Amino acid sequence: xxxxxxxxxxxxxxxxxxxxxxxxxxxxxxxxxxxxxxxxxxxxxxxxxxxxxxxxxxxxxxxxxxxxxxxxxxxxxxxxxxxxxxxxxxxxxxxxxxxxxxxxxxxxxxxxxxxxxxxxxxxxxxxxxxxxxxxxxxxxxxxxxxxxxxxxxxxxxxxxxxxxxxxxxx
Length: 170
Prior knowledge:
mainly alpha
């Protein structure tokens, strides 16, 4: 019975880590694609972007700098999220980018748009909300075992000392 309990715990841990890996891969590819689209346009913001109202402090940065910052942030933080390197930092940064995007672009329908993607009346924020919730899971749980953060932690002397203490005390 004890063996079954231990196996169940290990399976649960692996499934949790696979779930976090799936969330990271899906969210990262969304941000990488969005950021690459911005940057490959030559760094020049499109006309529709120029008419947006940005939240504080972005309202002081200007249209071109906001466009460039969003593109670079999405690519860099999306890549970090994909690798699981500084995963919580990347998730937090992408949550902020998502907040700015919802505030400026996706809140056309107001709170009625929480279930909408795109309508004749404007853009809803269903997709950014789902991405934000995925990022929140990574922020609160960490990037999981299949990440560079976990690999780095397992190679640090501090984690090896803890493992040897556990082994010697059993």
